[in-house]
């Protein structure tokens, strides 16, 4: 459709450098499920292309002075972008949301004393979390806070959020898919803490962001939410040697723990029913993969030398609307009664079919036995003839007598000598 050529310098950007100063991936797809757009970061520009003509929108790039990073909304044609501080702090850093294709800025937030920013979109595009690392006044240390954008609400309100200890190092952050909760691994010790939060107010909390719980001292440095939400795997990769904890966020309880020694990859299947852990060939030993149930039961294990990659087969999008899925979830008991009755009817039908099948087998067996009994009776006279008139069919009526017999076992001969002279 289109070819992009150039040296590494032609693709370099002002921030987040990769190999040879190139920010990877160079092209980032966006616009939601329709894949209407893709974009790439350049020097002071973001170039946005449409996927019908593969040409620049409006034949020109979006000019953003000193832009260093951007990210697409997973569901809407919205770009979030970050511009660092300029002029030694005289011009603050900036987070902006830009609507495509009109390229209009729909929300902006100025940020001060910024060291770095990371952007995390929730998969439904409802929320955007911006992790902001800031310098203290002395600029000798860094603390972290979050700017939480509520994308779907009017005027896109922003809420400032900090951990109980804002000096904690942030190790990992992850949104619950299709949900309103998020998890954060934080701390400086060898066993960090894991906190869970919700974007909905709890117990009349003044802040709309509410903490659900904090798990202390966990061997984890990565978070893997189930695609269906509710369940999460707290994983200890690299230095933690593949520790796994399966956690139910609804009940705030651990379902199971496990270990896949030296695991390099963790992947939920699209349904959220199974989890795969793998050791790829970056390690020379223990290559292979394991399959786990959502609640932490190991159900399959394969060792395979030079194992490189594991991927689940993707599933097509649901045919149900989000509203219909929510309705089913809310009224699950009512739907369950209907289908339980249908299941019971089917079960009874199967029971009846099984009863009829067994009756047929019994009838076949009895017919087979009757056939051979009749044949046995028909051949009775012939058997008597073969046995000299003896009716062997009535052997159980014969009389038995016990006879005792003496048997000579051995005979011993004895020789006796006499002295004749004495007689």
Automatic annotation (TrEMBL):
Q: Where's it mainly located?
A: cytoplasm
Which keywords are on file for this protein? Cytoplasm, Initiation factor, Protein biosynthesis, RNA-binding
Q: Where is the Translation initiation factor beta propellor-like domain?
A: 109-310
Assembly behavior: Component of the eukaryotic translation initiation factor 3 (eIF-3) complex.
The scientific name of the source species is Aegilops tauschii subsp. strangulata (Goatgrass)
The Gene Ontology biological process annotation of the record reads:
formation of cytoplasmic translation initiation complex
Task: Name the chain's protein.
Answer: Eukaryotic translation initiation factor 3 subunit B
What family is this? Belongs to the eIF-3 subunit B family.
State the function annotated in the UniProt record: RNA-binding component of the eukaryotic translation initiation factor 3 (eIF-3) complex, which is involved in protein synthesis of a specialized repertoire of mRNAs and, together with other initiation factors, stimulates binding of mRNA and methionyl-tRNAi to the 40S ribosome. The eIF-3 complex specifically targets and initiates translation of a subset of mRNAs involved in cell proliferation.
Give any GO molecular function from the UniProt entry. RNA binding
Kindly list the places in or outside the cell where this protein is found, as annotated in its UniProt entry. Answer: Cytoplasm
Question: Per the record, what is one GO cellular component?
Answer: eukaryotic translation initiation factor 3 complex
């Amino acid at each position: 459709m289109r070819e992009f050529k150039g040296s590494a310098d032609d693709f370099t950007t002002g921030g987040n450098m990769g190999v040879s100063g190139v920010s990877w991936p160079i092209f980032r797809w966006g616009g939601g499920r329709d894949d209407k757009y893709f974009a790439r970061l350049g020097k002071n520009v973001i170039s946005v292309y449409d996927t019908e003509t593969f040409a620049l929108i409006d034949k020109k790039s979006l000019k953003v002075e000193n832009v260093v990073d951007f990210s697409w909304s997973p569901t809407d044609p919205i770009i979030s972008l970050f511009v660092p501080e300029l002029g030694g702090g005289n011009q603050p850093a900036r987070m902006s949301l830009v609507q495509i294709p009109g390229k209009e800025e729909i929300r902006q937030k100025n940020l001060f004393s910024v060291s770095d920013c990371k952007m995390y979109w929730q998969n439904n595009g409802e929320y955007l979390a911006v992790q902001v690392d800031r310098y203290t006044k002395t600029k000798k240390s860094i603390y972290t806070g979050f700017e939480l954008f509520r994308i779907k609400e009017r005027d896109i309100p922003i809420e400032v959020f900090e951990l109980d200890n804002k000096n904690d190092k942030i190790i990992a952050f992850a949104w619950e898919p299709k949900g309103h909760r998020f998890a954060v691994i934080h701390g400086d010790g060898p066993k960090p803490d894991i906190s869970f939060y919700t974007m909905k107010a709890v117990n009349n909390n003044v802040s709309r962001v509410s903490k659900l719980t904090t798990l202390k001292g966990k061997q984890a440095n990565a978070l893997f939410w189930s695609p269906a939400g509710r369940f999460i795997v707290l994983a200890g990769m690299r230095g933690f040697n593949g520790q796994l904890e399966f956690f139910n966020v609804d009940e705030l309880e651990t379902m199971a723990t496990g270990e896949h020694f030296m695991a390099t990859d963790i992947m939920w299947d699209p349904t959220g029913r199974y989890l795969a852990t793998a050791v790829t060939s970056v390690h020379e030993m223990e290559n292979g993969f394991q399959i786990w149930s959502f609640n932490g039961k190991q159900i399959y294990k394969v060792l395979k030398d030079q194992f490189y990659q594991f991927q689940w087969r993707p599933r097509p999008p649901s045919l149900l609307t989000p509203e219909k899925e929510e309705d089913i979830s809310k009224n699950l008991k009512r739907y369950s009664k209907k289908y339980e009755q249908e299941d019971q009817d089917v079960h009874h039908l199967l029971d009846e079919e099984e009863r009829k099948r067994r009756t047929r087998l019994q009838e076949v067996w009895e017919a087979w036995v009757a056939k051979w009994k009749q044949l046995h009776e028909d051949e009775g006279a012939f058997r008597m003839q073969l046995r000299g008139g003896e009716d062997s069919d009535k052997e159980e009526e014969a009389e038995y007598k016990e006879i005792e017999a003496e048997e000579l076992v051995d005979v011993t001969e004895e020789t006796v000598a006499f002295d004749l002279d004495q007689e």
